[in-house]
């Protein structure tokens, strides 16, 4: 089992990287990578929320939705869990760790409508993953997303200094750049079969 | 300090005024680029020797496309046209040297076009591209035309022969059928090493002849156009990892030498991973870059679905180069001491 | 925001504030499902349906929703309509659903849906809201179809699954890599056209 | 640590460059005394710090060595007449720094008489540190290595920064220049005696004279001159630009690292140019203020390159004439060496205290290539003695991101030009650095 | 307090209405979906053995690559005419799932790819007829992937060798299973075929 857990982690971080291979999370990806600072802040916050909400979703799915055949409500329930958790985290962080909140709070709000955060519990449910497998997927996705954010931010800082043609400045070149990174990440393809 | 001459004192014999230093190195970007192209001449000649006229036409098409694409894009973007500075030539040459001799001529043309226009000019031109243009060009055509790009001809060592037999590359054989089969094909181990060294094997045009590549690399090292940091760590890492993990009989039984001499490792390590623009510029970061590229190459070759890992390894490390440079900024003279004092 | 003409609403949704190319919102499906025109179109239809229904619902009960729980209520409404779409597609178009089921479910996270509910439907009466949802959805749909045409033609040499060219000119275009290229190149080209002929300033880069 | 005598492994710093030395043009030519100028132009500002205040009026007769401008504060020194004659003008005249600066012009009376009352002090060893410092200031002595920082200031370190070593800078790492080299060959005793005075003032027991190993004759001569003083070590160093920059010099001689943004005295060191030491000796022993200095006139743009002992205020044009005049192709005249020197609009500028040389380059040697994009070759990173990333600094400044450049330690750059020298793309890093420092200073105000 | 109540009421009403809508839709669509799924499966099975006259029945479970698969028996007028199995092969980036059928001589009758995650444009060529048609009539020993020209065996699609091998291996595993269960005297020993 642990081998599978490890495989899931590596696969979701590198080979099936959410941004470069599954094209999810793009809005945040492009939104926060203009500066390294925001990219790092988002990475940290995102990974935390990802793991916790995946665990919550897993328990509710296994112990409530499956027994009562409420599977068809998963969209509503999972987004509800994410939203509720983010709201709770927001409130608690404000009280308990105001400095941390000052640093990371803004990212919390952005996360609610991120597609990866919702995709992970949905995939967990579809694949009937166990608890540890679900955590591995969440952690791997978080790590992969963080990696993508940080690489992208470091490159975009450099791109800031480049003479990009006017029409391509901003998003267009960021898209082309992401395409090139995705091309490089194809090197990982075929390494693990899930 | 660009003060203009004071008018009340008529300047004496038209003196040139500029900010120092007033002496500059003889070196120029053009000289470097043309020298690197020159260093690839032995490998180019070997390509033509082994793969015949096909190779020559692929090389010409690729270079011409690269130069024209560069000039036309710069014209459209209303930038000074610098297509003759040798960097487009070099990119074109490297694209050609990275495709097999079996391909139709539009493939190197597409490769060069993507290399120059999308990878280089769109990102601001010389010096600003994030990815190695030639390698992106190659990756692009590999994915777009996988069939032709993985069809290799046997070396013919005859300029005129047009129809060659297709065969697998040594790495392909090693991956698909194992070492025993590889030795069968090349008869003996020494014949295998000999053929790998001189380049008498299937593969991309320029990558086959280790001898020719090392000759060019030595020239670049002596001229100090490249340093040891990236190529040596790159090659050493591939050697070590394929030796440790590459064998079927357990740890430390891999045939490292075959891995070092086949595929694009030598060309990649000396001519492509060393591209200034797309690698880190801090020495310590270059070592990390080399080790990382080596580790990824070994990983892809041994674990991935695709027998050849150098191209993807370098492209992946290109992604990390800005991060490495950023994280490993050199220690400013006296910075540590200054911190000490503040405490 | 009373008295908006329907013409303006449509022009806005399709050109001026095109969700994908101008607002740069909800980009994921633009890359993810557009390897073929058909999938792009169906995704577009799904989004169009959800947006229209959400806008309609929100404008109908906008006076009933308590302002303090506005956003959760909207999200709830969105989730409901997405679930409906999901269930219907799962039952009636199984082949397509296999390919893009996950992305259909993810419509719930698209900022474009929420933002229209918040920006438009919560302040307008029924018909204009429906029109707005429809127009925005249409803009979205057209963008996906445009990208789909570009990618499928280049990548597979076909359109809607029918072979047009007798070869596959650039296979890479149907891979994720190609999706990003297509988006970047199309956006750049549209920016160029906009700047050249309409004196615009180019796309913004958005949230989701 | 190597012994001073070992030939091969000379100490040095990391980074740096090796431009063609071109010192053979003048290094074997004994110094000649330049003619007394008919007209001396003496700027009131020849040093770092407050300009001195003129003490004379137009028409006033002055003698050589007479104080004509008084120091305007602690970080300031007086200026002296370098010839005898009549003050003919006080006003803005061209200055080697590239602007017009207030100067006192003296027309020679041909007599070249010293001002009366110069005190010979054969027994100067008895003077106290304070007295010596006053003499140094009154003599108008500033650093002759080029930076022209008032020497007496360096001699007054604050109590919390005890100094334990004095280092004389005989590196002369700039290509072409040989004035310090000739000075060491011709007046070694002055230098050693000046060093002893410095050590006494600072209460220091250890002195080093750092000399690049391309001047073996100077090393020999200086060793002989210092033979009787075991506390003074002559220290050969590797030939490399900018070995003479004080931080690099300190690293090479006593292996201490001056903290970034710090001064030599942070590591207990005071650095002085060899010429400064000789001038101090002249002032203390013979009572002579600073009125002349060694100047190398060189380059393939003059017919007979030479070393001169020239009066402060001598116009460049006169020295160039005495060096055979300009050649046909002469295109650029530089005050100082080719690396850090300042190119001149006119030959009317005078020799000032900091003028170590006048370099004339012919057109063929002047690079007029325009610069291109940075290809990130890292040659500049390797060359930078301060271990900065000039490539990034340059890029940031080129695009106007001054704050980012500061993040990349712009302020630690001392504009040695090594990066610009090696850049194959010919990028003008020094010019940009100067611009950025100015912009940042503006923003601060 | 009153506000709290209003908020609660507003949320609860929306919730109930939404739940009602969703429940209704679920109720109408889920039988449709269930039927569609069942029909899909039946049709797929039927497609593998069109001559069958009775409904095709499940004959047992087996496992391959650590996952569970099923096999079936197709009959016409009570006589076995074909055997069907679900199976999978390990491909480039996914397990390729398929449905295979053999006739009573244990020759491959047909293959249907059920699902895979291979690279579009490369690995997904295994779904194309020219490749799949090669399998028709092949016996167990012929199910070997060859990279060059071949009529006797299975010819790989260049650029997708790994995916092709996965299909070939998956089919072979399935044929082996069915031969073991139902075959008589047909070679099934793996060792005879180079894997
Ligand atoms: C603003 C300023 C203040 C200085 N203060 C001192 C000082 O207090 N003590 C000292 O020994 N040197 C002082 N220096 C002189 C420096 O140590 C150094 O000799 C001078 O800047 C020239 O060095 P360089 O020619 O290597 O650039 C000062 C220099 C400057 C520009
Ligand atoms: C790049 C650079 C090179 C220098 N080279 C020398 C040199 O070769 N000799 C020298 O005396 N001063 C040189 N200096 C100046 C010294 O740093 C220092 O200011 C001087 O030795 C102090 O002595 P002074 O105050 O007597 O001039 C150099 C400065 C810089 C910035
Ligand atoms: C990005 C990428 C995707 C690939 N996808 C597949 C695939 O889906 N199926 C496959 O068999 N091989 C795939 N390959 C592997 C190569 O095409 C491999 O070299 C090939 O299968 C073996 O070459 P050959 O079939 O020409 O002998 C892929 C390679 C790369 C780089
Ligand atoms: C040592 C060296 C290696 C180079 N390698 C490559 C290369 O692998 N691919 C390429 O397109 N250009 C290469 N170039 C040329 C040039 O740097 C490249 O086109 C830039 O990336 C364009 O900005 C190389 C240049 C040098 C000096
Ligand atoms: S003036 Fe030039 S030669 Fe003299 S010390 Fe300074 S840098 Fe070296
Ligand atoms: S000029 Fe500045 S950045 Fe350039 S080498 Fe000298 S110290 Fe380094
Ligand atoms: S510019 Fe250089 S030489 Fe001049 S004072 Fe500053 S640090 Fe010293
Ligand atoms: S030497 Fe010039 S081209 Fe090379 S990295 Fe430095 S600035 Fe860039
Ligand atoms: S649509 Fe994916 S993050 Fe917004």
Helical segment count of chain E: 3
Write down the Rg of chain E: 23 Å
Please summarize the sheet with the most strands of chain B. 2 strands, antiparallel
Quaternary organisation: heteropentamer
Distance between the termini of chain B: 38 Å
Number of strands of chain B: 2
Radius of gyration of chain B: 23 Å
Proportion of strand residues of chain B: under 5%
**Biggest interface, and residues per chain?**
B-D, 52 and 73 residues
Number-wise, the strands of chain E total 7
What form of chain E results from the Cα inertia axes?
elongated
Strand order of the largest sheet of chain B: 1-2
Largest sheet of chain E: 5 strands, antiparallel
Q: Which structural class should the secondary elements of chain B be placed in? A: mainly alpha
Beta strand % of chain E: 25-35%
Helix content of chain B: 55-70%
* Helix/strand order of chain B: HHHHHHEEHHHHHHHHHH
Major beta sheet, strand line-up of chain E = 1-2-3-4-5
**Intertermini distance of chain E:** 75 Å
Describe this structure in words.
Chain A is mainly α and 194 residues long. In chain A, 75% of the residues lie in helices and 0% in strands. Chain A has helices at 2-15, 26-32, 36-65, 74-96, 98-111, 115-127, 131-159, 171-185. In chain A, helix 3 packs antiparallel against helix 7. Chain A is globular. The mean pLDDT of chain A is 89. With 208 residues, chain C is mainly alpha-helical. Chain C is built from eight helices and two strands, in the order αααααααββα. Chain C starts with 5 loop residues before the first helix and ends in a 10-residue tail after the last helix. Residues 203-208 of chain C have low confidence and may be disordered. Chain D is of the alpha/beta class. In chain D, a hairpin with a 7-residue loop joins strand 13 (292-298) and strand 14 (306-311). In chain D, helix 4 (188-202) crosses helix 7 and helix 10 (390-398) packs across helix 13. Chains B and D meet through helix 1 and helix 16 of B and strand 15, strand 16, helix 9, helix 12 and helix 13 of D. The structure holds flavin mononucleotide (FMN) (3 copies), riboflavin, iron/sulfur cluster (4 copies) and FE2/S2 (inorganic) cluster. One iron/sulfur cluster binds at residues 145-146, 171-174, 177, 244, 336-337, 340, 356 of chain D.
């Amino acid at each position: 089992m642990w081998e599978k857990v490890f495989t899931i982690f590596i696969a979701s971080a590198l080979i099936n990287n959410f941004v470069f291979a599954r094209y999810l999370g793009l809005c945040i990806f492009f939104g926060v990578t203009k500066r390294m600072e925001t990219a790092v802040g988002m990475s940290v916050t995102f990974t935390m929320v990802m793991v916790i909400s995946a665990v919550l979703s897993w328990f509710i799915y296994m112990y409530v939705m499956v027994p009562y055949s409420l599977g068809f409500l998963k969209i509503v329930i999972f987004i509800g869990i994410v939203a509720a958790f983010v709201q709770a985290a927001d409130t608690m962080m404000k009280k308990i760790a105001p400095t941390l909140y000052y640093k990371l709070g803004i990212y919390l709000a952005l996360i609610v409508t991120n597609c990866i955060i919702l995709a992970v519990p949905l995939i967990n449910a579809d694949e009937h993953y166990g608890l540890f497998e679900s955590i591995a997927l969440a952690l791997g996705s978080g790590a992969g997303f963080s990696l993508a954010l940080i690489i992208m931010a470091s490159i975009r800082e450099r791109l800031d200094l480049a003479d990009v043609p006017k029409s391509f400045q901003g998003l267009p070149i960021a898209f082309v750049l992401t395409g090139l990174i995705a091309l490089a990440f194809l090197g990982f393809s075929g390494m693990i079969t899930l | 300090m660009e003060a203009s001459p004071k008018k009340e004192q008529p300047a004496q014999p038209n003196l040139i005024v500029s900010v120092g230093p007033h002496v500059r190195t003889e070196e120029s970007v053009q000289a470097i680029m043309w020298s690197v192209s020159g260093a690839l001449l032995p490998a180019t000649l070997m390509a033509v020797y082994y793969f015949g006229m096909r190779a020559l036409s692929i090389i010409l098409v690729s270079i011409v496309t690269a130069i024209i694409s560069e000039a036309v894009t710069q014209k459209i973007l209303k930038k000074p046209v610098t297509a003759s500075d040798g960097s487009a030539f070099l990119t074109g040459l490297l694209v050609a040297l990275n495709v097999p001799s079996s391909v139709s001529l539009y493939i190197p043309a597409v490769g060069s076009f993507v290399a120059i226009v999308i990878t280089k000019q769109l990102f601001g031109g010389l010096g600003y591209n994030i990815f190695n243009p030639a390698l992106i060009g190659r990756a692009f055509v590999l994915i777009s035309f996988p069939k032709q790009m993985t069809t290799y001809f046997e070396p013919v060592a005859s300029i005129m022969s047009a129809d060659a037999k297709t065969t697998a590359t040594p790495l392909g054989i090693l991956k698909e059928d194992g070492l025993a089969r590889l030795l069968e094909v090349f008869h003996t181990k020494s014949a295998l090493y000999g053929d790998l060294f001189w380049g008498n094997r299937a593969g991309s045009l320029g990558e086959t002849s280790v001898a020719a590549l090392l000759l060019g690399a030595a020239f670049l090292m002596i001229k100090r156009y490249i340093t040891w940091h990236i190529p040596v760590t790159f090659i050493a890492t591939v050697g070590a990892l394929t030796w440790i993990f590459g064998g079927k009989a357990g740890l430390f039984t891999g045939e490292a030498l075959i891995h070092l001499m086949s595929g694009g490792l030598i060309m990649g390590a000396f001519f492509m991973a060393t591209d200034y623009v797309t690698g880190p510029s801090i020495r310590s970061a270059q070592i990390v870059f080399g080790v990382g590229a080596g580790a990824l190459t070994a990983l892809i070759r041994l674990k991935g679905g695709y027998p050849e890992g150098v191209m993807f390894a370098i492209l992946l490390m290109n992604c990390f180069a800005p991060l490495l440079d950023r994280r490993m900024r050199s220690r400013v003279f006296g910075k540590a001491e200054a911190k000490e004092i503040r405490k | 925001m009373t008295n908006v003409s329907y013409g303006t609403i449509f022009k806005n949704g399709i050109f001026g504030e095109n969700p994908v190319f101008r607002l740069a919102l909800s980009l994921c499906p633009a890359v993810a499902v557009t390897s073929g025109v058909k999938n792009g179109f169906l995704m577009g239809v799904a989004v169009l349906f959800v947006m229209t229904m959400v806008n309609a619902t929100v404008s109908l009960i906008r006076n009933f929703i308590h302002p303090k729980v506005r956003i959760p209520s909207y999200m709830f409404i969105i989730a409901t309509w997405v679930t409906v779409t999901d269930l219907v597609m799962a039952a009636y178009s199984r082949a397509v659903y296999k390919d893009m089921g996950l992305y259909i479910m993810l419509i719930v996270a698209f900022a474009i849906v929420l933002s229209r509910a918040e920006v438009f439907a919560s302040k307008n009466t029924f018909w204009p809201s429906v029109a707005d949802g429809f127009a925005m959805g249409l803009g979205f749909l057209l963008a996906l179809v445009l990208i789909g045409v570009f990618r499928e033609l280049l990548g597979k040499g076909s359109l809607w699954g029918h072979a047009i060219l007798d070869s596959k000119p650039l296979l890479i275009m149907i891979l994720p890599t190609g999706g990003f290229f297509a988006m970047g190149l199309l956006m750049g080209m549209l920016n160029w056209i906009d700047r050249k002929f309409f004196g615009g300033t180019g796309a913004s880069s958005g949230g989701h | 640590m190597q012994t001073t005598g070992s030939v091969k492994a000379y100490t040095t710093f990391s980074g740096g460059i090796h431009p063609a030395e071109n010192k053979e043009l003048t290094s074997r030519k004994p110094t000649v005394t330049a003619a007394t100028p008919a007209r001396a132009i003496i700027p009131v500002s020849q040093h770092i710090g407050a300009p001195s205040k003129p003490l004379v009026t137009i028409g006033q007769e002055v003698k050589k060595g007479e104080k004509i401008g008084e120091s305007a504060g602690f970080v300031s020194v007086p200026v002296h007449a370098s010839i005898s004659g009549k003050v003919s003008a006080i006003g803005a005249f061209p200055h080697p720094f590239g602007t017009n600066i207030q100067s006192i012009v003296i027309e020679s009376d041909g007599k070249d008489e010293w001002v009366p009352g110069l005190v010979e002090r054969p027994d100067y060893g008895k003077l106290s540190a304070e007295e010596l410092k006053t003499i140094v200031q009154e003599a108008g002595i500033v650093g002759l290595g080029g930076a022209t920082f008032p020497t007496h200031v360096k001699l007054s370190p604050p109590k919390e920064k005890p100094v334990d070593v004095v280092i004389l800078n005989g590196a002369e790492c700039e290509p072409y220049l040989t004035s310090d080299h000739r000075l060491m060959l011709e007046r070694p005793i002055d230098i050693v005696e000046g060093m002893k005075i410095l050590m006494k003032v600072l209460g220091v027991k250890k002195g080093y004279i750092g000399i690049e190993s391309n001047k073996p004759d100077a090393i020999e001569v200086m060793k002989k001159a210092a033979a009787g003083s075991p506390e003074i070590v002559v220290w050969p160093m590797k030939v490399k630009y900018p070995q003479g920059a004080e931080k690099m010099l300190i690293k090479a001689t006593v292996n201490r690292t001056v903290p970034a943004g710090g001064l030599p005295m942070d590591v207990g060191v005071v650095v002085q140019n060899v010429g400064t030491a000789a001038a101090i000796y002249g002032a203390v022993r013979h009572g002579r203020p600073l009125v002349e200095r060694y100047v190398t006139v060189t380059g393939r743009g003059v017919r007979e390159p030479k070393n001169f002992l020239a009066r402060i205020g001598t116009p460049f044009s006169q020295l160039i004439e005495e060096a055979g005049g300009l050649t046909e192709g002469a295109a650029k005249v530089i005050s100082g060496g080719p690396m850090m020197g300042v190119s001149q609009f006119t030959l009317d500028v005078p020799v000032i205290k900091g003028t170590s040389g006048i370099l004339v380059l012919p057109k063929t040697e002047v690079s007029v290539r325009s610069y291109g994009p940075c290809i990130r070759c890292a040659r500049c990173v390797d060359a930078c003695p301060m271990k900065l990333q000039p490539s990034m600094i340059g890029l940031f400044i080129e695009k106007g991101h001054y704050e980012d450049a500061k993040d990349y330690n712009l302020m630690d750059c001392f504009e040695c030009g090594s990066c610009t020298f090696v850049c194959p793309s010919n990028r003008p890093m020094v010019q940009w650095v100067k611009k950025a420092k100015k912009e940042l200073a503006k923003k601060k105000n | 307090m009153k506000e709290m109540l209003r908020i609660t009421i507003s949320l609860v009403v929306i919730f109930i209405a939404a739940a009602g809508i969703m429940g209704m839709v679920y109720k109408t669509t889920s039988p449709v979906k269930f039927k569609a799924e069942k029909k899909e499966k039946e049709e797929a099975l039927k497609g593998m053995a069109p001559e069958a006259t009775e409904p095709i029945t499940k004959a047992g479970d087996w496992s391959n690559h650590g996952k569970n698969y099923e096999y079936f028996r197709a009959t016409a007028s009570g006589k076995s005419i074909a055997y069907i199995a679900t199976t999978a092969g390990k491909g480039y980036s996914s397990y390729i799932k398929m449905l295979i059928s053999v006739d009573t001589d244990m020759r491959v009758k047909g293959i249907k790819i059920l699902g895979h995650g291979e690279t579009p444009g490369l690995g997904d060529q295994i779904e194309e007829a020219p490749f799949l048609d090669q399998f028709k009539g092949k016996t167990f020993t012929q199910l070997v992937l060859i990279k060059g020209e071949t009529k006797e065996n299975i010819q790989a699609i260049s650029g997708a060798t790994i995916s092709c091998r996965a299909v070939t291996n998956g089919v072979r595993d399935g044929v082996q299973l069915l031969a073991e269960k139902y075959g008589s005297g047909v070679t099934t020993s793996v060792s005879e075929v180079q894997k």
